[in-house]
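FORM 7B: Structural annotation worksheet

SECTION A. Query
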Amino acid sequence: MFKRAHLLRWLMPLLVLAGVSAAAAQSTAPSGGGKTETAIFAAGCFWCVEEAYEKVPGVISAVSGYTGGKIANPSYEQVTTGRTGHYEAVKIAYDPGKVSYQQLVDWFWRNVDPYDADGQFCDKGPHYRGAIFYQGDAQRKVAEDSKKAVASQLKQPIVTEILPAMPFYDAEDYHQDYYKKNSNRYQFYKYGCRRVQRLEQVWGKAMPPPNT
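SECTION B. Predicted structure
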């Protein structure tokens, strides 16, 4: 199996050099313009979640990071021990006039294995668990209602968590937009980890992102 931790072990020096300056513009939403809201999702490897959401029209930015844990400003090395309580997650800034939170949640389900309580795909450990981190009662209701609908649709218990948002810490620069900066290695990891294959097994044929 092509676990991401194994891939990173020999790629780390290259990642640091390639990623030092590439993600600065991705860590904040553009200034000006219309209203911007945020959503936070965890669905295993944040490289893959970032890719999935940056394809959605109306999404302004998708930033990989860590949330839900016990310490401030954790490093990747700390989080991957599985002892900090953090999830690998993605914080999404979006224009609600172009895409709704409901649509983003619906897209989340198509990008997560809702049966896996031990991680996601080939990556196992508490930091790879799936979760929706809601901000306020409106997001909480959408998330909880959607989980009930998915459980009814799939007719099996869903282990994906619905949790209140906690402080979100941006991941290191070399993680941001990894799927763009290291396309070949990323695709090798993604397919080797059987993410695409498992999602099709759970959800059927892949669907296009919302509004496309």
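SECTION C. Observations
The radius of gyration is 16 Å. Confidence is low (pLDDT under 50) at residues 12-32.

SECTION D. Sign-off
Analyst initials: ____
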